[in-house]
Amino acid sequence: MSTILALPPVARRVVELREQVKAWRNAGLKVALVPTMGALHEGHLTLVRAALEYADKVVVSIFVNPTQFGPTEDFDAYPRTLDADRANLATAGAALVYAPTVAEMYPDGFATAITVSGVSEGLCGDLRPGHFSGVATVVTKFLVQAMPDVAAFGEKDYQQLQVIRRLVRDLDIPVTILGVPTVREADGLARSSRNAYLSAESRKVAPALYRTLQDTAAAIRAGAAVDTALEAGKRAILAAGFASVDYLELRAADGLAPLSDLDRPARILVAAYLGKTRLIDNIAV
Ligand code: AMP
Question: Which helix (H) or strand (E) segment is 80 a member of?
Fold first, then answer.
């Protein structure tokens, strides 16, 4: 017998979101928030399931945030699939979709930005100017709008996770940040809404990114010089068929300080172009 799951309702306004969260709180329920840009896949749904371990009700925000896209980036082309997203969220157990309009989030005269120095610098921060300030500002707004007990973010966007942990600490926002391990395809490619941009040919090349992260981590663990291992990794990514490598770096897992030796828990992070599609990934070392 199949069961028809009710689609989670969609709140478009901050007041609707707040009313629902208040009603849950009054009933003694714990609330989690999972911020997304939609085009949901198994990675996002895993965040919802992880959040449900800490909260009774999960709100998923779906908002393609214009302020975190650069002028030449894919804001207009970014996939928008609200109906399919709601169906997927019903199966994952989300209670509410929060999908505000751009005007609701940034009304006329909006003039505030959150900038998190340090962790926002280097890596994607240097190559996407303004990106992390856009992310930090929108996530701060979501946290203040929903006031959740818990908010879940993916390790897939590791620098973003570090930016959010920092801003929550710095601004004394009373929320527990949950970092969720990256969900991958069977061949190792990290799930991403942008994978939909890949041609069939590129899709075959894409897993080389994760393979290279693993090989580079293994070499460094085995005692290879960090610089040499990273240079070999970049060459392997290009040889596999990627067009260019933005960065392949070893950083401290906590705080992202650049490392030239493996003297503490670390992370290797990569960004590379496959055709016109920019893919990112990272793993622990
Ligand atoms: P996005 O919709 O791409 O902005 O992502 C929304 C949230 O889902 C972020 O916290 C991402 O880190 C997380 N996420 C995206 N892809 C994955 C993945 N493959 N595994 C785990 N989390 C992910």
Answer: none
- Averaged over 191-197, what is the pLDDT? 95
Distance 153 CA to ligand 1 centre (A): 7
Question: Nearest Cα to 10, choosing from 85, 67, 75, 91?
Answer: 85
Nearest to 150 by CA among 65, 50, 64: 50
Structural domains of the chain, with CATH: 10-180 (3.40.50.620), 193-284 (3.30.1300.10)
pTM of this structure: 0.97
Q: How many CB atoms lie within 10 A of CB 213?
A: 24
Could you please report the per-residue DSSP string of 169-208? HHTT---EEEEEPPPB-TTSPBP-GGGGG--HHHHHHTTH
Residue nearest to atom 6 of ligand 1 (CA): 36
**Each residue's pLDDT tens digit, 149-166:** 999 999 999 999 999 999
Tell me the HSE value of 65 on the side-chain side, using a 13 A CA sphere.
21
pLDDT digits (tens, 9 = 90+) for 211-235: 999 999 999 999 999 999 999 999 9
Q: How far apart are CA 10 and CA 61, in angstroms?
A: 9
Cα-based distances in Å from 30 to 5, 44, 151, 191, 208: 22, 20, 11, 28, 41
What is the edge-to-edge ordering of all strands in the sheet holding 10-11?
10-11, 96-98, 57-62, 31-36, 150-154, 176-180
Closest CA to ligand 1's atom 5: 36
- Most ligand 1 atoms within 8 A of CB, residue of 68, 157, 175, 213 to mutate: 157
